[in-house]
């Protein structure tokens, strides 16, 4: 059944699904990338902080190596010197731990951004199930992680072996040198090993990052039914939306029809278009469209005009132009001033004759 469900999940995850996964703390985090950042931090520690830190540690521990007889063991003297030594070692190595902590934080934040989720802190009893643990262990993801661990163990073990073999061969030659020379030699060998391992780590981290992103999107894929249901939740049922749109149009139409009796003239096609115009020279810069419509709506506008004795003027080009270019409650554009002015003038003359 699970395989059938996965086969049906053919659609890319929506923005809402990705956001929900993020809120739940489900993010594509690559452990290899975090390890890579930590490894870079270790290399920086060994390359730049290693020599000065080693000198400080040697200076601190020299009394135990060269002059152990000078240590005062009476009256809590040993406890005092141990406490003093530990505090000095802590101060000498605090920069190292700070850099490693910074690398651990950056390795995760670089992938997820500044993010915190409390849902991951909520206890989940189902995680304690042996059956689920067994399934996770022998799942495709678990087997891939196990394979990566074995591959890294073999590769890194082989690289350590290749690096230590010259060191073993050089042991007779370096035994006669001073402690600082031996430490400098070991420092060079350590940097060489870390650089080689970092190159391998880079390849592994990039491959794992791409795989984690691909697997993350794959697990969040949706079925077509889920996409439709989510669309309905966000946008509403199309049938309900259509009905609401129809209700809004009907209300707008009724408001428009209520404006028709205020019009001064109706410009018609004469049967397919009707545009109701109003002009008040004291309040308006140009005539305003109060209502417009085609076919049945145009017919209803003409009927209202006849009921309220509003003049009907047939001018097909002007009626069509006003319908296409002017919205309701907007003044007509300048290109129609002359034609409309002639009509308004004609309407005013009709009113004078009636009077």
Strand order of the largest sheet: 3-2-1-4
Q: What structural class should be given to the helix and strand makeup?
A: mainly alpha
Please write the string of helix (H) and strand (E) elements: HHHHHHHHHEEEHEHH
Total number of domains: 2
Residue runs with pLDDT of under 50 for 5 or more positions: none
Q: Quickly count the helices.
A: 12
The percent of residues in helical segments reads 55-70%
In this structure, how is the largest beta sheet organized? Answer: 4 strands, mixed
For the residues shown, what is the average pLDDT? Answer: 76
Oligomer: single chain
CA gyration radius, whole angstroms: 42 Å
**Ends: how far apart?**
87 Å
How does the overall form come out from the CA principal axes? elongated
Strand percent estimate: 5-15%
The total count of strands amounts to 4
Protein described:
The chain is mainly alpha-helical. The chain folds into 2 domains: 2-231, no CATH class; 255-354, name from scop (3-Layer(aba) Sandwich), CATH 3.40.1690. It is 70% helix and 6% strand. The protein is built from 12 helices and 4 strands.
Quick rundown:
The chain is mostly helical. It has helices at 2-8, 15-23, 31-66, 77-112, 130-137, 140-174, 179-219, 224-235, 238-259, 295-307, 316-325, 337-354; strands spanning 265-268, 273-278, 288-294, 312-314. Helix 3 runs antiparallel to helix 4 (77-112), helix 3 runs antiparallel to helix 7 (179-219) and helix 6 (140-174) packs antiparallel against helix 7.
């Amino acid at each position: 059944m699970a395989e059938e469900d996965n086969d049906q999940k053919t659609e890319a995850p929506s923005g809402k699904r990705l956001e929900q996964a993020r809120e739940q703390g489900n993010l594509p985090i690559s452990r290899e990338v975090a390890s890579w950042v930590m490894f870079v931090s270790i290399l920086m520690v060994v390359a730049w902080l290693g020599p000065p830190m080693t000198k400080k540690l040697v200076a601190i521990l020299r009394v135990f190596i060269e002059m152990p007889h000078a240590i005062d063991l009476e009256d809590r003297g040993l406890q005092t010197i141990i406490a003093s030594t530990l505090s000095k070692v802590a101060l000498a190595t605090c920069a190292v731990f700070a850099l490693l902590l910074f690398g651990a934080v950056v390795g995760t934040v670089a992938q997820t951004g500044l993010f915190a989720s409390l849902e991951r802190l909520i206890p989940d009893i189902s995680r304690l199930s042996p059956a689920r643990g067994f399934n996770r262990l022998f799942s495709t993801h678990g087997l891939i992680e196990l394979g990566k661990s074995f591959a890294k163990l073999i590769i890194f073990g082989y690289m350590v072996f290749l690096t230590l073999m010259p060191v073993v061969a050089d042991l007779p030659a370096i035994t006669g040198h001073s402690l600082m020379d031996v430490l400098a030699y070991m420092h060079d060998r350590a940097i060489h090993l870390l650089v080689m391992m970092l190159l391998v780590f880079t390849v592994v981290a990039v491959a794992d990052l791409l795989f984690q992103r691909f697997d993350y999107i794959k697990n969040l894929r949706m079925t077509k039914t889920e996409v439709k249901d989510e669309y309905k939740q966000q946008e509403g049922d199309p049938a309900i939306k259509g009905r609401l749109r129809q209700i809004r149009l009907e209300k707008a139409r009724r408001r428009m029809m209520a404006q028709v009796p205020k019009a001064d003239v109706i410009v018609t096609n004469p049967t397919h278009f009707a545009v109701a115009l109003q002009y008040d020279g004291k309040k308006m810069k140009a005539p305003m469209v109060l209502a417009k419509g085609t076919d049945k709506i145009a017919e209803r506008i003409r009927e209202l005009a006849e009921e309220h004795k509003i003049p009907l003027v047939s001018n097909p080009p002007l009626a069509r132009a006003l319908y296409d270019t002017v919205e309701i409650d907007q003044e007509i554009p300048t290109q129609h001033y002359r034609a409309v002015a002639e009509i308004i003038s004609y309407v005013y003359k009709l009113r004078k004759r009636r009077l």
